[in-house]
Write a structure and sequence with these properties.
By secondary structure, the chain is of the alpha/beta class. It has one domain: Rossmann fold, CATH 3.40.50.720. It is 43% helix and 15% strand. The protein contains 8 helices and 7 strands, in the order βαββαβαβαβααααβ. The protein has helices spanning 18-29, 65-77, 101-129, 150-170, 188-191, 196-204, 208-219, 229-240, and strands spanning 9-13, 33-38, 53-57, 82-85, 132-137, 175-182, 251-254. It has a 7-stranded parallel sheet with strand order 3-2-1-4-5-6-7, with helices on both faces. α1 (18-29) links the parallel β1 and β2. α1 crosses α8 (229-240). The radius of gyration is 18 Å and the shape is globular. The two termini are 32 Å apart.
Length: 262
């Protein structure tokens, strides 16, 4: 399938690992020109030639970071066609009562306000072009929160409403906004020390592999497996293409079938 993404200028935040890294690679394979953004981009140094790949280090929890990313994209490639808002944190908690005000502020600042800052920075460019695509990485946790992820789940629910607000205002001006909502995607956020799988292993009193099996059994995931970053990236590329030009303000669930069955 030809998605006709060659030459498109795409900003991918959170591009140093996981879903963001895989999405950047797939856009590059389609011939897009990609700006990969993360606080530390050394792990994604050589994804493409300089006329197709720009890595840019920025902390989107800081004011002014969005403008810096947009300016770098314009200086390198002259336009911005697609933004994939993906950077975020997923801190595992003991429960709601373990989350302090400072914890809430940090999660919402990065996961929600980071998206706001990026959208606000690229929209003037897209409005001048009279065309653009905003794609935001939400989560199934924004619809069905997990007890170990109260602040993360809340931030992801807010992203859905942010995207719908953007779609309502800017779709008539040629700019679409949608959310991909992954669930049960095994990335570094799951496997890192202290991450979600480690918390599950403690909860179930088993090994990491045992925790995966127990989680799949408990979640009753129809697909019978955890998802991959490529599963999500494929949907992002479709939404970025003109093949999805009649889709805006929507949420695309990438969850192995769990949403229609719960």
């Amino acid at each position: 399938m030809n998605l006709d993404l060659k030459g498109k200028v795409v900003i991918v935040t959170g591009a140093s690992s996981g879903i963001g890294l895989e999405t950047a690679k797939m856009f590059l394979a389609e011939g897009s020109r990609v700006v990969g953004v993360s606080r530390y981009m050394s792990s994604a140094a050589d994804l493409g030639p300089p006329d197709q790949w720009l890595r840019f280090e920025a902390d989107l929890g800081e004011r002014g970071a969005g403008e810096a990313v947009a300016n770098a994209a314009l200086m390198a490639f002259g336009r911005i066609d697609v933004l994939f808002n993906n950077a975020g944190i997923c801190p595992t908690r003991g429960g709601f009562l373990d989350v302090s005000d400072e914890d809430w502020a940090q999660t919402l600042n990065i996961n929600l306000m980071g998206y706001v800052r990026m959208a606000r920075s690229v929209l003037p460019v897209m409005l001048a072009q009279k065309k653009g695509v905003l794609i935001h990485c939400g989560s199934e946790a924004g619809r069905m929160p997990h007890p170990l992820l109260p602040d993360y789940s809340t931030s992801k629910a807010a992203i859905t409403l942010l995207s719908k607000a953007l779609a309502r205002e800017f779709t008539p001006k040629g700019i679409r906004s949608n959310v991909v909502a992954p669930a049960h995607i095994r990335t570094e956020l799951w496997d890192r020390p202290g991450g979600f799988l480690h918390a599950l292993a403690e909860r179930y009193g088993t090994t990491i592999d045992g925790a995966v099996d127990a989680f799949l059994a408990e979640s009753k995931l129809p697909a019978g497996r955890l998802g991959t970053a490529k599963d999500v990236a494929t949907a992002v590329l479709y939404l970025a293409s003109d093949m999805a030009e009649f889709i805006s303000g929507d949420v695309i669930n990438i969850d192995g079938g769990v949403t229609p069955t719960t």
